[in-house]
UniProtKB/TrEMBL annotation:
Name of the protein in question: Sugar acetyltransferase
UniProt lineage: Bacteria, Bacillati, Actinomycetota, Actinomycetes, Kitasatosporales
Keywords, in A-Z order: Repeat, Transferase
InterPro entries: Hexapep, Hexapep_transf_CS, Hexapeptide_acetyltransf, Trimer_LpxA-like_sf
Region (Disordered) location: 209-230
Annotated Gene3D superfamilies: Hexapeptide repeat proteins
Repeat recorded as keyword: yes
Species for this entry: Streptomyces djakartensis
Family statement: Belongs to the transferase hexapeptide repeat family.
Length: 265
């Protein structure tokens, strides 16, 4: 026989569930760290509009961490400066994040020596950046007891770092670089490149003379024209492919259409 549903118990469970969700949402809002509400954290600098989501990961050495404006630091992101807490690291910042940096959930940025992340860099979830690596020179000593090697890391502005990528000590990543998911980067990466693999290698690059080589396989996204309303976008999303293709062909033949700007525009 099917069990009789306990309506009162179900109602209580639903009420408790809503209360838990509401309480957690309140904790997330209240526990997030901003320049206006830093809580117990004392960062060396934090720009306007920046927010560290709650719950935070491990954070220490914050007097030597400078975070720019309008950054988004996801949940469980670790930011550390120095080998351990409560060290005096001198007068200069160790970890610098430019304006508009986004660090995805669960990412780690470990700055035992200088780590610089340029403005408008976007990290996917669980990216690992470190300026320190274990050494294993002595075959008789446990690796964890051997003194680590440290090299500065620099990531240029405008980069996209894919999910699960690892940036190793000494990496120098140029401007507007794409690091594929799961890539392991060391050494120097030129501007406007796409790197993938472990160890990462350049698989595509842009230069003023040759453009993208190898050529891109898909056309670039077309920006939404000025003046298009949300209602028009919703209507377009409901069109089938054949109708959309006919409209695009008609637009190309129409003076002043999206594909052929009107004179003076």
């Amino acid at each position: 026989m099917p069990k009789r549903k306990n309506t009162f118990s179900s109602w209580r469970r639903g009420l408790a569930q809503r209360a838990v969700h509401a309480g957690w949402a309140w904790a997330q809002r209240t526990g997030s760290v901003t320049a206006e509400h830093p809580g117990r954290y004392r960062f060396g600098a934090m720009g306007a509009g920046t927010r560290l989501a709650f719950p935070l990961g491990t954070v220490f050495g914050e007097p030597w961490i400078h975070v720019g404006a309008h950054c988004i630091i996801g949940e469980q992101v670790t930011l550390t400066a120095g080998l351990m807490p409560d060290l005096d690291l001198g007068p200069d910042p160790i970890l610098r994040l430019g304006d508009g940096v986004v660090l995805g959930r669960g990412s780690h940025v470990i700055a035992d020596t200088t780590v610089t992340i340029g403005s408008d860099c976007y990290f996917g979830p669980y990216v690992y950046v470190t300026s320190t690596n274990h050494s294993y020179d002595d075959p008789h000593e446990p690796i964890g007891r051997q003194w680590p090697r440290m090299e500065p890391v620099e990531i240029g502005p405008g980069c996209w770092i894919g999910t699960g990528a690892v940036i190793l000590p000494g990496a120098r990543i140029g401007r507007n670089v794409v690091v594929a998911a799961g890539a392991v980067v060391r050494g120097t990466v030129p501007d406007h490149a796409v790197v993938a693999g472990a160890p990462a290698r350049v698989v595509r690059r842009w230069t003023p003379a040759d453009g993208w080589q190898p050529p891109l396989r898909t056309p670039p996204p077309v920006p939404i024209p000025d003046g298009v309303t949300p209602e028009q976008l919703r209507a377009l999303s409901e069109l089938d492919e054949e109708t959309a293709a006919r409209l695009a062909e008609l637009d190309e033949k129409t003076p002043g259409g999206m594909a052929e700007p009107a004179p003076g525009s």
